[in-house]
Amino acid sequence: MNKKKMIRLTALVGVATATGVVAEANQAHAATTTTTETTNQTTNASVESTQAAVDAAQSAFDTAQTSVDSAQANVTSASNNVTSASATLSSAIANKEAATSENIASATSAVSSQAVVVASASQAVSEQAGVVSAAASVQASAQAEATSASASLSSSSANVASATSALSAAEAALTSDQSTAANNLSAAESAASSASAAVSSGQAAVDNAQAAVASAQAIVDAVAEVQSSDVINMSVAYITALKNYLANPSSANAAALQEVAKGADYVKELQQKFKSDASLDVVVDPSDPTVQEALSVYAVNLINHLRNQYELTTAFGASANANVAAIDFVKKYYDDEDWNIFGTTGSDGKGHNKNGLDAYADQLNTSIAEDAGSGLTTWVNGKATMATTTLHNLLYAVYSDIATMLFDDGGTNNWSHAQSIFEDGTILGTGGFNNVYLGVAFDKYGYAHYELYNATEGNHLGNNAYSLDVQTAAQALLTNAQASLASAKASLQRMTTNLMVAKAAVVAAQNQLAALENSSANDLVAVTKARTQLASAETSYQTALATYKQKEEALKKAGDNLAAAQASLEAAQATLATAKAKLAELEETVANLTNADQLLAAAQAAYEQAVANLTTATGNLGAAQVDLAKAESQLALAEDTAEQAKVRAAIAAQVDQQLNGSTANDRQSAGQDATSLKTNGRALTATVATASAAKQKQGANQGRLPQTGNDDQEASTMALVGLGMLGMATGLYGYKKKRLTK
Question: Please, which residues have CB within 8 angstroms of residue 660's CB and are 6 or more apart in sequence?
Answer without folding.
Answer: 36
